[in-house]
Amino acid sequence: MSRNQKKFHEIKDFLIEKLGEKIKYSRDEDETEYLEIKNSNFWISNTFGELVVGYGFNHTHFSEEFNNLNDGIFQVFALLTNRIKTTNYIKGNKIFKTSVEIEYSISNSVIIGTSSIILYPFWKKTQIEINYAERILDLKEIEYKVNTVLETDFTEYSKIKTESNHLRIK
After folding, report:
1. Contacts of 50 (CB under 8 A, 6+ apart)
2. Adjacent-strand bridge partners of 46
3. Which of 48, 59, 167 is nearest to 115 (CA)?
4. pLDDT digit string, tens, across residues 52-66
5. pLDDT at res. 163
6. Which of 4, 6, 84, 106 could bond 133 through an S-S bridge, CB–CB 3.0 to 4.6 Å?
């Protein structure tokens, strides 16, 4: 079993233990595994040697091959333990762009993805709709398990990641 698979299963087992019936898990014929939290935009998958972490349409691929698997594990727990801000940009009745941010604190957020479509009524006035999803888990309650899966200290890793992404922090 690859480290990607091992970490996916550690996260899956932990979330099933913590959230029980809120977790939806499935496995395809090609052995791709999916996990989502009901009534949430959060999801992860394990496919072709990659851990894919998603929120709505936005998703990022992580793996040992890309040398960013720990970043993916960090993002999983950051999405679960922080408030998420979703900004939809609308023209007419069509959402043409969506941006997703993890809010680490009131003054510190990181954009984890932006998706957009090509064809939309560009001549119409843009409306902005902002939605917030409250944290799913409390970091203080799960910090030991997070550190175990991440194999380092989450708080220290969080400081390193947000400082290294300073251009993306608002």
Report:
1. 4, 61, 62, 63, 65, 66
2. 33, 51
3. 59
4. 999 999 999 999 999
5. 56
6. 84
